[in-house]
Amino acid sequence: LFAQGDLKGASVHYQGLLARNPLFLPALVNLKDIASVSGEPDQAVRYAQAAAEQRPWDATARRRLAIARAEAARFRPALVELREQAEVGAEQVVPLLVYNDVTSCDYPGRTTAAQIVAHLRRLAAEDIRLIGPDQLEAHTLGARAILLVPIAVPLALRRVDEALARSGGRAVYAASGLEIAGRTAGKQLAELAATGRWVIGSTGPVDTRRVPIDARGTLGGQLTHRLHTYTGVEEPVQAAARVDAALARAAARLPQDAPRVLVYPASDYGQYSLDTDAQTIAQLRDAAARHFAFAVAGDDTGFVTPGFDPLRLPARVVPPAWDED
User: Fold this and answer.
1) What is the pLDDT, as a whole number, of residue 184?
2) Which of 20, 52, 214, 322 fits 61 for a cystine, CB–CB 3.0-4.6 Å?
């Protein structure tokens, strides 16, 4: 609707989505843009501020707010924010690249080991050091990037590891709960960790299926929603205890002598979920903080900047079509 110029219809649509989750990021971003195009700068500031307040570490959200304030003739706070961002050096900005579900052979729509190997060569040629999330504060290392692989077939993982050994640096492999528990896969993960090149992380609970969250059968994530049971929808305290127990089990399967990393299922800590609320989303972050040092969520830009939240690291999912250029 927005692309077709139906600003009123688009606004009604996104307002409806925002009513289903006041922190739903796509609705806040698009409502800000609609308000700007409609000549309603104060409304644009309100939506941009709501997005920036829930994501204070997000340089893009803060920049969007600064632009909205400038459109509303609030130049002083806009300039303060933009000047602060202009002072951030390139060595302080770290791209976090995620390669999902990697296969060892060419397959339409799938990320391949060959693609990652080509990217590793390019990063090495550009003198960009691959680091673990525990090195995010090490600005003296120069240009840096984080490479994260959630789930890969064993042969693909072996090829990526061989390339990583040649180029140097570290990476994160986020395994599924079933993979960590499996005897053969568990042995391979232990071997990867022993190289010193890999931080072994988790994709969360073994069961990440979407399940009913209300009597109508609406589906939601097991970490991002209060679930519907035979007695009705969980109370917040029940949901918090369930999520905490699930993340405790996931963390317990990881090596205890390395930083524990969680990749939120579907890269969603609640910012992309409907039919949830701010309290449930906050409880998920609290549980992640108790059991993990770092947690990764999806983001359109994928740049970790100063002031980052270690439990909501923004990651850019690399499309299968991206080549090394």
Assistant:
1) 55
2) 52
